């Protein structure tokens, strides 16, 4: 059978719409009219990055020109494939653009980067993994690495092994310098550094974690220098603690054995004695040369040597416990009956490492038995004392539960109440006996506050019974025995069985009726205050607006008098007219500022992304007259974008820049510099000048309305500018403050919300 090629008529007659809709890869159809249609996979992916459904939001800006060229080619009947960079993956994607139905069909295929897969795999195994550049800067890190090291992934990225903030130690507690870290050694030697033990300080938990680190250098084919180093590390803190505890117990065991036995000895895995054996030498008088190998048999009574050697050889052959009795010659020549016992000691792999044995005098054993009986009697006394202590604790716990003001009750794994204190019973109107043994949810938690049934699966208390997680609920209701709802806040703490599985819960409940009543009263006060503020703002606006009409009349007639009679009256009359015109101008400026202040209070902000550079160009135009008049200088370095209303932000920056240009030192040209930098979710803007400065005691006062520090004859103004600046800043969710010293200039700081990244 002959297969048709992909361009045959048979394919052209097929309806592929259902396939395109069901494809797991994103597919888009661009119509000739510019309309874009997305399949389900594309809709799901685009929705993560664009609220408006913009298909191009999937791609890095560097890929957009190539995509547009391919679309134009498809609209002309040509099929193209372009490599693109997708915003949410490190691996490049392949975009196929083909002509379709008078438009273009775009199909995106994204392969997963092997490094991303490796990072996810390490996460699944609970292993930390980082990828570092040749200068040891961290390029990539998985979630497990961040968790083990006690940092976020953002904090890890860019840090290098030489960073003094790292705190690392060797197992013996000595410092672990950055230049000796496994990743650095792997880069220098091009050799894999395997399972290097390292202690690191965990900043969140404020304790030390023990790691086992493996560093693997990577280099490009044919290259002599490393390209990267991949570091994998496991948190072995618990294992380290267990090993330390095992060594401690072994030391205690050996000390205990030495304290309760006459002779303690050890031997090689093959059964030969290994010197030194200080206690053996002291008891038998043998030298190391005499007891080495099986020379120790010479210190055994001749009649006991055969069965002693046979039993020892059997134990060595089988790796089993060695136990025998024989007579051992003391250094003074007397034979002493001994109970001998030895055990094989194995390592983690089960390999025999050594034998540890003891020789005990039988009379000492009888003394030990007597001591054991005395110890048992002492232990029985301790148990009795402990029982009495537990009884006192139980009585105290009962008194504590009874006296507690909060309701406390316990549940078993089924949600049945196992205990309840009197406060819980009083709060809910039941007796303690009535609550115990009843399903807690059915009894007091069966409905929501609005009367809807409370499904058991939605209940936070029963969710804790299932997953063992502590939960805090700030507002809920429980139902009183008389049928009314009691507003409560509660904390659910799980209990666990020996295997660590959830076995029940303890619930601490607080009646928040008074708290809710206080919150409602507070809300009423806030609403009253807001109405009062609105009334005051409306009054200021109306008063300022209504004052303008008589002021215009006074100003007009004053101007007519000045034009008609200037020079016809005496000089003092001309001076009075000048004073009147100046007062009218100041009053008009003051009313305009007051109107602007009132309008600002009533305005509804519309926040959109605004480039600070664009705002500064507008500010420069606003103060152009001042700059050209006296040679003042305005510079800025503001690469950031903020969320705000452009007109208000322009007014804000213009006021601050104008202040800096106005209040300059006599005989010196003003220089105002504006900078910005991102700090978390906010943009920090600084407006710095070389002016006369402001004394510290006036730093807060200058932001209040109608506050002036200088006479109008020296510096013009109404004392409204900085008050307006503060209101604009606070309306945008930021704050404004000042650093200044007299004769050393001023720096105004303000924060504005950054455009979400």
UniProtKB/TrEMBL annotation:
Pfam families documented for this protein: HATPase_c, HisKA, PAS, PAS_3, PAS_4
Domain PAS, residue spans: 120-172, 400-468
Source domain of life: Bacteria
Coiled coil: 512-539
Enzyme superclass (EC): transferase
Gene3D superfamilies: 1.10.287.130, Histidine kinase-like ATPase, C-terminal domain, PAS domain
GO MF entries: kinase activity
Residue intervals of the PAC domain: 322-374, 471-524
Domain Histidine kinase: 542-756
Protein name: histidine kinase
Naturally occurring in which organism (per UniProt): Deinococcus daejeonensis
């Amino acid at each position: 059978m002959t297969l048709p090629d992909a361009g045959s008529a048979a394919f052209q007659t097929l309806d592929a719409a259902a396939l395109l809709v069901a494809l797991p890869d994103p597919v888009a159809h661009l119509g000739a009219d510019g309309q874009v249609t997305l399949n389900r996979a594309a809709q799901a992916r685009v929705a993560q990055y664009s609220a408006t459904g913009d298909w191009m939001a999937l791609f890095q800006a560097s890929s957009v020109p190539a995509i547009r060229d391919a679309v134009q080619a498809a609209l002309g009947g040509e099929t193209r494939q372009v490599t693109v960079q997708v915003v949410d993956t490190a691996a490049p994607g392949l975009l196929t653009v083909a002509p379709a139905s008078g438009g273009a069909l775009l199909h995106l295929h994204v392969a997963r980067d092997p490094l991303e897969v490796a990072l996810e795999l390490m996460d699944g195994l609970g292993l930390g993994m980082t990828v570092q550049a040749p200068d040891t800067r961290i390029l990539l890190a998985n979630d497990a690495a961040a968790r083990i090291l006690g940092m976020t992934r953002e904090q890890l990225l860019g840090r290098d092994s030489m960073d003094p903030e790292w705190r690392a130690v060797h197992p013996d507690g000595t410092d672990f310098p950055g230049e000796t870290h496994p990743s650095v050694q792997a880069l220098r030697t091009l050799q894999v550094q395997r399972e290097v033990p390292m202690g690191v300080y965990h900043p969140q938990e404020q304790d030390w974690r023990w790691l086992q680190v493996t560093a693997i250098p990577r280099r490009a084919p044919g290259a002599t220098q490393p390209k990267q180093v991949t570091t994998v590390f496991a948190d072995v803190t618990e294992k380290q603690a267990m090993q330390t505890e095992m060594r401690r117990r072994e030391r205690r065991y050996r000390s205990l054995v030495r304290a309760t036995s006459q002779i303690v000895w050890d031997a090689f895995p093959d059964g030969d004695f290994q010197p030194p054996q200080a206690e053996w030498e002291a008891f038998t008088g043998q030298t190391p040369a005499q007891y080495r190998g099986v020379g120790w048999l010479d210190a055994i009574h001749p009649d006991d040597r055969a069965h002693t050697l046979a039993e020892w050889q059997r134990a060595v052959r089988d790796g089993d416990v060695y136990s025998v009795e024989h007579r051992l010659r003391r250094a003074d020549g007397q034979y002493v009956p001994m109970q001998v016992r030895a055990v094989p000691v194995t390592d983690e792999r089960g390999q025999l490492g050594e034998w540890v044995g003891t020789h005990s005098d039988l009379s000492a054993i009888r003394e030990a038995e007597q001591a054991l009986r005395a110890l048992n009697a002492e232990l029985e006394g301790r148990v009795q004392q402990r029982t009495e202590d537990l009884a006192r604790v139980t009585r105290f716990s009962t008194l504590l539960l009874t006296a507690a003001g909060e309701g406390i009750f316990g549940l078993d794994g089924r949600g049945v109440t196992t205990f309840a204190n009197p406060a819980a019973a009083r709060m809910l109107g039941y007796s303690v006996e009535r609550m115990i043994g009843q399903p807690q949810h059915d009894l007091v938690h069966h409905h929501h506050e609005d009367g809807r049934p409370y499904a058991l699966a939605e209940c936070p208390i029963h969710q804790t019974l299932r997953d063992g997680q502590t939960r805090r609920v700030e507002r809920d209701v429980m139902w009183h025995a008389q049928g009314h709802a009691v507003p409560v806040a509660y904390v659910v703490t799980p209990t666990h069985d020996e295997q660590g599985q959830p076995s029940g819960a303890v619930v601490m409940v607080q009646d928040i009726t008074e708290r809710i009543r206080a919150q409602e009263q507070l809300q009423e006060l806030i609403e009253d205050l807001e109405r009062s503020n609105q009334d005051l703002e409306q009054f200021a606006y109306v008063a300022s607006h209504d004052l303008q009409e008589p002021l215009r009349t006074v100003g007009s007639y004053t101007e007519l008098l000045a034009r008609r009679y200037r020079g016809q009256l005496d000089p003092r009359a001309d001076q009075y007219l000048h004073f009147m015109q100046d007062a009218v101008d100041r009053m008009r400026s003051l009313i305009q500022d007051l109107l602007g202040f009132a309008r600002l209070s009533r305005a509804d902000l519309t926040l959109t992304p605004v480039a600070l550079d664009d705002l500064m160009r507008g500010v420069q135009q606003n103060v152009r007259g001042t700059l050209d008049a006296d040679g003042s200088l305005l510079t800025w370095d503001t690469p950031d974008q903020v969320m705000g209303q452009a007109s208000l932000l322009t007014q804000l920056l213009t006021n601050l820049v104008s202040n800096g240009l106005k209040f300059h030192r006599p005989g010196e040209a003003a220089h105002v510099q504006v900078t910005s930098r991102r700090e978390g979710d906010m943009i920090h803007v600084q407006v710095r000048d070389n002016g006369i400065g402001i004394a510290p005691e006036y730093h807060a006062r200058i932001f209040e309305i109608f506050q002036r520090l200088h006479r109008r004859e020296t510096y013009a103004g109404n004392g409204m500018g900085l008050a307006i600046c503060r209101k604009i800043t606070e309306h945008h969710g930021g704050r404004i403050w000042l650093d200044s010293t007299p004769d050393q200039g001023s720096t105004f700081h303000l924060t504005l919300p950054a455009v979400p990244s």
